[in-house]
Design a protein that fits this description.
By secondary structure, the chain is mainly alpha-helical. Helix content is 71%, strand content 2%. The protein folds into three domains: 1-31, no CATH class; 33-138, no CATH class; 163-223, no CATH class. The protein has a two-stranded antiparallel sheet with strand order 1-2. GO terms for molecular function: amino acid:sodium symporter activity.
């Protein structure tokens, strides 16, 4: 609903009912007499290998690409008080290292799925691996799609994509000004340069970036 608000928010009840019904149908096989065998396959291949990769990727992206300091400022803005600095240490080092250790340990102990004395046929093992890999497909798929949609050389595209969109942030003006003020000078500078590079799309919407960014706009104009 957040991705397609104009289409789905008006039909929130219907959309929610359809999603719940589909998930209900998908869950039926797991509660049949042989459902435990299917559940074992899903749990065996989806709850360790692929889940740990997704978790590790999330940790790296938030702490090292988006930036632990910026994420910390976002949390402070949202909850209204400054949390312990210990969280930044956890995001950068503790959580990624623990996740990596669990992932490597699970790989070292990985073996074909079994349930008690029952040995699964080859097709079910292949099905389990395919099911586990399907959840990872969106990562490279979205990355490749965004690279092709972005303009510039390959390096320029990557540099643009590893930084948040200039429109990213609180929707309300008063909170957006606080958000802009919490950004580093380089982040605000990068935000304005991105808008200036895309001026062909229309005049700059300065409401997006707040009063702090307006002052920085003047600084950049004097330099450029």
């Amino acid at each position: 609903m957040d991705e397609f608000p104009e289409l789905l928010r008006k039909k929130k009840v219907l959309f929610t009912a359809v999603v719940c019904f589909i998930e209900f149908l998908l869950g039926i096989p797991f509660i049949t007499q042989g459902g435990i065998y299917l559940l074992q396959v899903v749990d065996w291949y989806c709850s360790t290998f692929s889940l740990m990769i997704l978790s590790l990727t999330e940790c790296v992206v938030i702490a090292w690409i988006y930036g632990a300091d910026r994420f910390y400022s976002d949390i402070t803005l949202m909850i209204g008080y400054t949390p312990s600095s210990w969280w930044k240490i956890s995001w950068r080092f503790i959580t990624p290292l623990i996740t990596l250790f669990v992932w490597l340990f699970s790989i070292s102990k990985l073996s074909p799925v079994t349930y008690g004395d029952y040995q699964y046929p080859t097709w079910s093992i292949v099905f389990g691996w395919v099911l586990g890999m399907v959840s990872l497909v969106p990562l490279p798929a979205v990355m490749i799609s965004q690279i092709f949609q972005t303009k510039g050389t390959f390096i320029e595209r990557v540099k643009k994509l590893i930084h948040p969109d200039p429109k990213w942030g609180p929707a309300l003006p008063q909170y957006r000004d606080q958000y802009i003020a919490s950004l580093s000078f380089s982040d605000r500078q990068r935000m304005l340069r991105h808008i200036m590079e895309n001026e062909k799309d229309g005049p700059h919407d300065m409401s997006i970036i707040g009063e702090h960014a307006k002052m920085l706009q003047l600084q950049l104009d004097s330099v450029c």
